[in-house]
UniProtKB/TrEMBL annotation:
Protein name: Sugar hydrolase
Keywords: Calcium, Hydrolase
Glycosyl hydrolase family domain ranges (all copies): 294-759
Organism name: Sphingobacterium athyrii
Protein biosynthesis is among the record's keywords: no
Sample GO molecular function, one term: carbohydrate binding
PANTHER family linked: PEPTIDE N-GLYCANASE PNGASE -RELATED (PTHR12143), SECRETED PROTEIN (PTHR12143:SF39)
Subunit structure: Monomer.
Amino acid sequence: MNVRSLVCVGLLCIPYFLRAQETKLIQYVKPLIGTARMGHTFPGATVPFGAVQLSPDTDTLSYAVNGQYNGDVYKYCAGYQYGDPTIVGFSHTHFSGTGHSDLGDILIMPTQGKVQLNPGTADKPQEGYRSPYSHANERAEPNYYSVLLDKHQIKAELTTTTRVGIHRYTFPQSDASHLVVDLTAGIYNYDGKNVWTVVKVLNDSTLVGYRQTNGWSRTRTVYFAIKTSKPFKNYGAKYEDGKSVYNGFWRKFDQQHNFPDLAAHNIKLHLDFDTKAQESIQMKVALSPVSMKNALSNMEAEAPNWDFDGYVRRGQSAWEKELQKIEVDMLNKEDLVNFYTAMYHASLMPTIYMDQNGEYKGLDQEIHRAKGFTNYTSFSLWDTFRAFHPLLNLINPSRNSDIVASMMAHYDQSVLKMLPIWSHYANDNWCMSGYHSVSVIVDAILKGVYKGDPEAALRACVQTANARNYEGIGAYIDKGYVPDDVSGTSVSNTLEYAYDDWCIAQLAKKLGKEDIYQTFSKRAESWRALYDPTIGFMRPKNSQGKFKEQFDVLDTHGQGFIEGNSWNYSLYVPHQPKEMMELMGGKKKLETYLDSLFTMELPDKYFEHTEDITRDGIIGNYVHGNEPSHHVAYLYNITQSPWKAQARLRQIIRNQYHNGHAGLGGNDDCGQMSAWYLFTALGFYPVAPGEDAYWIGSPLVKSANVNLENGKRISITARNQSEKNVYVKSVTWNGKVLDNLKLSYASLMNGGELIYTMSNKPNK
């Protein structure tokens, strides 16, 4: 070929190359995935790990009915259910994928006509400010959400910065257009949840205030500042506090009409405007954990103008940068959508919890300034220690370092001197079992991610693990297990404490603390105390050392477990899997156990009254919709048939993750379900965080580039990848065959080439 031909070929290649470069990864993100049934994700606007999650809420069910828990409220952990026919409004704070909830602060709803401050009901939306809508007129993408509200034909558009929610509402012509500001609204709401609310109207386009609630977070205060792009001509308020024995002398004022100094338990506002046809009014709502003044400062720093489209672009650029940390080629577009939506969901929480000036409210309810780190909140650690934080250690280590620093600040501010269990908004809600901040901290230190004082971190871990008055720890230390008569989740607690204690032992070993290493190495063996060899399962034991007599290995409730039964939890010894296998009877016994787990049938009666799991999240008796089993398929690697792990992993990833609105088999749990998908799609998984090993599985990608923060790259290729070729014929790392089916973190962080050769036949 001559030079001219080479030039022509090169020129012909340029357009394709440019198109490839111009391809935006955000096009594959579908925030509506997981918004139906069990996913509990929200579809609204936010930036990566942003403090504001501006999203629609679709109903207002109360947490309680006649003083009893209302089970239907569970559907609204994220405020939105895809199947609902109406939208109540747009609030600024949401959890992603949780199985309990709070938040839903500062709900905004545009309306026209007679002022309505009651939300109405789904079957009678005309009686309130809510509106019917159609999914045909709904659009959700990273940092942008829009919908047409059918009731008054008002178009709603949402975008954000880190700390500011920006609304744009396009109205029909009217002399009675309104923006309702409902400060009583919330997720998992009930009478008395609002402790106090304050609003100060500074001028005809600016309000500031705060809302204090008592919920999952016991003492939570959100400060806000609101600005409108157009002055409101009137405003009004309604107190919904009911009758009080004392009303003070504020009754001298008419506080319902154009009164600027409002305070009550429950306040609703309306801001009134004249609008021309197709006139847009914007609203900015800035949040702060510290003060109204800081909320105003956050707004000025992050959203100084009314360039709505510019905020959309900047937020989407931030998302594009986040998604580019892993660039993949998949078998089809549906897989690309699942992959990048998983990356999106794994970048929503935890959330930044400090103002532009570094100030935040600490666990001690005092104001602190983060020095040298970004402070974060909302740590769902029972879920996220498994794969989410290990994922950050790989692709976002500086962020995980800041998260660990935030956990250490939490510990320093704790009067109980404990690391976080499930913390959010300057509180700990103590949800779930274990003390898994230990796992996150130890893994980050051992991998060189956290640059803080390791000695102080070890002291915090030990202190937390010795909190005798917390969920059976005292009995656990004394007896070597948590007795069934001490805790209703005794087996779960014992198994999870044992793993966390193993983590502490590894850090102590690294730091040369032999006494601590020996103590916690012994505690890490505690799982053995609850293994009943007569039945081959973990089983509750009372304080006298007697196994529970009435015991059902398929049941969860009243059997010593949380979100899992004995079939699943008996495999939860991630730090000592070979020892567990030997106790169970060896390789063949474990393989048979795993085969049965995936193929047996779990009757409906065992989960039909359990709100956190449905048939969607179950394969046989393997429960992927809850986290304790996320490592289980990889355990085939230590049996005589590692190829079975490859087949099961491909089965799980195909069965549990889809492009639909109900595309997640269980709660996404602050990114854990998504992190599992990402690791498994790449072909390896952290079975035991704290160990320098990732276990090889079956990749779903055709190829991938993992772009590391240190500038190096992990290049992954799956040769002969196809829907049928689920088995790994061979795998090499930098040209060397991996005989033990493990990769080390240290080698991965140095970059290199990982090549899988796939086949439709198992490599036996």
